[in-house]
Specification:
It is built from nine helices and ten strands. It is α/β, with parallel strands linked by helices. The strands form two sheets. Strands 6-7-8-3-9-10 form a six-stranded mixed beta sheet. A four-stranded antiparallel beta sheet has the order 2-1-4-5, covered by helices on one side. A hairpin with a 2-residue loop joins β4 and β5. α3 packs parallel to α5 and α5 packs parallel to α6. The longest helix has 18 residues. It is globular and about 55 Å long. The model has no long low-confidence stretch (mean pLDDT 90).
């Protein structure tokens, strides 16, 4: 029996009079990989920020892990964020910190671990992303693909229930992009996490998703598998898949 981990109910959001979300409704189930796709400005990344309370909707409700985000104070939101890992579009590593310190950062913020436990945890996460033994390197010494994987190791450092990916393959060559796609699936399988992927990379969508939600004109216009999307009668879905909508 499926369990709803994330739910958006009639979420509306405007910025300076510009309507971004006009009644978003979406349920994401425990352990699935849900991809969010849509054209530029469709509000994909805003959804991720709303999910962890960095942006609050103007109206509607958002539930994460059984908690109502829109009713929570900052301290409660900070505790909730311990259960959510995030891979940012540019990896967002701290340039002045080693790989070890980058991955250890959320551990120092949220968990009470000894230095030995922290080193073991960092080594374990680097092994999971295929980068064992690079703890002492600086971000400037890493390729773009390696930075993404270090960012992913940091995202899973606290053993989150949810991992969010914001354009995970942007800026990567096809080989590294495919490596990231494979890691998304592998981590979902090994860790049992619920995964939300924001992307306009259709190869990524096809490769990793259990289900896909498409945003168009402020709403989720369809949710389904890749095969269901390609068979959709909706013109907006066909235009996006066939490259007729700006990304």
């Amino acid at each position: 029996m499926s369990q709803t981990i994330i739910e958006f109910k009639d979420v509306r959001k405007s910025f300076n009079g510009l309507l971004v979300h006009n009644g978003i409704n979406l349920s994401i189930q425990k352990g699935e990989i849900m991809s969010l796709m849509g054209g530029s400005g469709s509000g994909k990344s805003v959804l991720l920020k709303e999910l962890i309370g960095l942006i609050m909707p103007d109206s509607g409700d958002i539930f994460v892990l059984g908690k109502q985000i829109t009713q929570m104070k900052e301290q409660a939101l900070m505790q909730l964020r311990e259960h959510v890992g995030m891979l940012f579009q540019g990896a967002a590593l701290f340039d002045s910190l080693t790989v070890f310190e980058n991955i250890a950062y959320p551990l120092r913020e949220h968990l009470q671990l000894t230095e030995k436990e922290m080193r073991e945890r960092v080594a374990e996460k680097l092994r999971l992303v295929g980068l064992s033994g690079i703890e002492g390197k600086m971000p400037a010494e890493l390729s773009g693909g390696m930075k993404k994987r270090v960012g992913l190791a940091r995202a899973i450092a606290t053993d989150p229930d949810i991992i969010m990916y914001d354009e995970p393959t942007t800026g990567l060559d096809p080989i590294n992009a495919q490596r990231i796609n494979e890691l998304i699936v592998e981590l979902q399988r090994k860790l049992g996490v619920t995964t939300v992927v924001v992307t306009h990379d259709l190869h990524c969508v096809r490769t990793v998703s259990n289900r896909i939600a498409m945003l168009h004109e402020g709403k989720i216009v369809t949710v389904g598998t890749w095969n269901e999307l390609t068979a959709s009668p909706l013109q907006a879905v066909n235009d996006f898949i066939n490259g007729n909508i700006s990304v």
